[in-house]
Amino acid sequence: MDTYLVRDSAFIDDAFTRMLPVFNNIFMSGCVKGEVLIDLAYGPFFEWTFPACDYFSDIILGGSTDKCIAELEKWWKNEPGALDWSHAAKAFCELQGNR
C-alpha cells in the first residue's frame, strides 16, 4: 500500500472530493437500489462504500484481493498499523453536513 498509495497525495484528495459526490448522487437518485450490493472491482479503494451504506443493508466486496480485504478489516477493527481511511469518512461526513 505504501508503494502505490501516498496517503497525503493530491491524487487521493482529488479522487475523494470528486468521486464521493458522484457516488452519493447516484445512490440518492434511487437509480441504484436493493438490499445487497456486490462490488467486483479490484484495488484498495473503498470510498464509495460510505454513501452506499445508507442504501444497502449488505455490501459484499468480492473482487478485491485477500490483501486488500485484510487491510480493510485491520482498519475496521482499529488494529495497529492499519491504513487510515478516516479521510474518506471525514470527506463523506462533510458532504452530508455531519461531523
Automatic annotation (TrEMBL):
The keyword Transmembrane helix does not apply. Keywords: Methyltransferase, S-adenosyl-L-methionine, Transferase. GO terms for biological process: methylation. One of its GO terms (cellular component) is cytosol. GO terms for molecular function: N-methyltransferase activity. It holds the Pfam family NNMT_PNMT_TEMT. InterPro entries: NNMT_TEMT_trans, SAM-dependent_MTases_sf. PROSITE patterns: PROKAR_LIPOPROTEIN (PS51257), SAM_MT_NNMT_PNMT_TEMT (PS51681). Belongs to the class I-like SAM-binding methyltransferase superfamily. NNMT/PNMT/TEMT family. This is MHC class I antigen. The lineage of its organism: Eukaryota, Metazoa, Chordata, Craniata, Vertebrata.
